[in-house]
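Office hours follow-up: a student asked to see two folded examples consecutively, so here they are.
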Amino acid sequence: MAIIVNLDVMMARRKMSLGELAERIGITQANLSILKTGKAKAIRFSTLNAICSILECQPADILEFRADEEQEA
């Protein structure tokens, strides 16, 4: 599975720090960091909704699918 998390890109575009976004969403910086680095196994829709609302973006701006080379063969 190759889901790429582009949260850092959107945060940079909005000039928002990890701490500020975490505070505005209401989750810990540690949990947001796990999501940002792509190490999360899942994301709640409520969290995705809050991120998109605060960053004024669409889910596709944050999450991207890239097929694995093995899947293409």
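And the second, which I mentioned at the end of office hours:
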Amino acid sequence: MYKSDLEAMVGMNESILWRGKPDKKCFILESIFNPMLPFALIWAIIDLAVVGFTFSASGGMLMFILPFMLMHLMPVWIYIGGVIMSFRKHRNTEYIITDKGIYVSGGIFAYKYEMKPFTDLSHINIHRGIFDQWLGVGDVVTVCSHTGYSSSSSHSHSSHGLTICDIPDYQQVFAMVKQLQTDIYADTQYPNDLRPGENHGYQTQYRGRN
């Protein structure tokens, strides 16, 4: 019996080396303090000031203006809804690392499952934002050979690389992914011996499966 739908995606010939979820406190804080927060605050302050001025000027008109102002506050409601939905998004987010690649699940209402084999990866980076440093967690960012690297932290999954966000053992996971990517890439690129079960040209720990 699988523990999750993401685990069901793992192949029969793969071994799970690590699995985890983002730190909940950091995940929620990053959802609250996102780039939309200043915009939502300014929008709310202006709208509430207008409502207050209208109420003091003509209290009888407030019942007609209030529904319009509630609709006009839509950016604020969208921001608040995003923060509330981040709890559900955290529940649906899971990471699995096998000896073949990285699996990531996420989403709010529609689930999304992604997998990147180590042969597709060209770079592995660590990113730590303000809340990551404060709470002792970090992001492991993987980049494919045909994409660039951006240090901006995001819970959304790139269509090219995958990011393992807000995990406490980010250093160990980084070292694991880096070693697996190096070993498998070297084994794949090695042209001699018709790619034997053991790679005689590089000092790697990876051993092919016959």
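Two things to take away from it. The first strand starts at residue 16 and ends at 20. Strands lie at 16-20, 94-98, 101-106, 112-117, 121-127, 138-144, 163-167.
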